[in-house]
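Project outcomes to date are best conveyed with an example. Our students and postdoctoral researchers have been running inverse folding experiments weekly, and each run begins with a structure described purely in tokens. The record below, which covers 283 residues, was selected by the lab manager from last quarter's runs and is presented without edits.
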């Protein structure tokens, strides 16, 4: 007996043939299964997930955002500016409309006041003339004979004042009568429209007499004469001498021709239509 026979052997025990064959068969079956699965190929394989690299979209994004913000701010600023301009224009238009209405109101009030003042002055003037004529025509007593003499004298004076014009006076009378029916226009000097002093000035210019242009100056351009001693060609005036507001030409027969107003134009009327304040004689 060996001296080591009693020591267990350190070597692995040999495997029996049946176990080895069994294990080989199992391993072969597994490998066959794997081979079959591999042969089945992609049809039975799980889908493979691919990672696709997307393009980077953040390139220049900050620049685009900044530009968009700037454009938006500019549009907002433009809208604010336009709103301010519209508001200013509306305010200006409103103020102009208000100022115009106020100016029109003041002009109308002034016009009415002037018309009222003129009417009042004319009424007072006519009343004073009526009173003066009443005083002059009132009987002062005396015998019927003296009254008859006075009546005869008055008739004689009237006849004298209505006598036919001659010479330069006739030319003046003929000129103004020829304009009867023409229009009245303030500042008019002919040939188809006149104001009162423009007509008188043009009539006397035909005989070489250059009268002032306005009524006030024409009322002192000659010798003052009585209304009871008028002659054709005398200048009649309404208002005071030197402050007259209207003039005309006495044409005889107790009538005058003058450019009265825009409603009547140039007319021939009796003295009673609008009794004058005084008269001057130039010729």
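After processing, the design step wrote out the following sequence:
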């Amino acid at each position: 007996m060996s001296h080591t026979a009693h020591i267990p052997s350190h070597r692995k025990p040999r495997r029996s043939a049946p176990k080895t064959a069994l294990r080989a068969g199992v391993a072969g079956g597994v490998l066959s299964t794997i081979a079959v699965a591999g042969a089945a190929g992609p049809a039975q394989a799980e889908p493979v997930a691919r990672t696709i690299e997307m393009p980077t979209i953040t390139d220049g994004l900050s620049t685009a955002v900044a530009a968009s913000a700037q454009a938006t701010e500019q549009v907002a600023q433009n809208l604010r500016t336009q709103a301010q301009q519209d508001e200013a224009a509306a305010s200006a238009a409103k103020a102009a409309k208000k100022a115009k209405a106020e100016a029109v109101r003041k002009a109308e009030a002034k016009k009415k006041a002037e018309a009222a003042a003129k009417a009042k002055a004319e009424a007072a003037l006519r009343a004073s003339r009526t009173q003066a004529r009443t005083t002059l025509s009132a009987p002062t007593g005396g015998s019927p004979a003296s009254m008859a003499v006075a009546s005869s004298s008055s008739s004689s004076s009237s006849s004298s004042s209505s006598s036919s014009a001659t010479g330069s006076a006739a030319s003046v009378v003929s000129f103004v009568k020829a304009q009867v029916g023409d229009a009245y226009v303030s500042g008019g000097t002919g040939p188809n429209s006149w104001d009162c002093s423009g007509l008188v000035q043009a009539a006397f210019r035909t005989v070489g007499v250059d009268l002032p242009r306005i009524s006030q100056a024409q009322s002192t351009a000659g010798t003052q004469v009585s209304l009871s001693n008028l002659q054709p060609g005398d200048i009649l005036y309404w208002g005071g001498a030197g402050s007259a507001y209207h003039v005309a030409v006495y044409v005889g027969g107790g009538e005058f021709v003058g450019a009265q107003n825009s409603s009547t134009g140039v007319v021939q009327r009796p003295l009673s239509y609008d009794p004058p304040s005084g008269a001057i004689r130039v010729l």
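The chain has a mean pLDDT of 77. The helical segments are 17-40, 61-137, 144-161, 167-178, 196-205, 215-218. The training component of this project remains on track.
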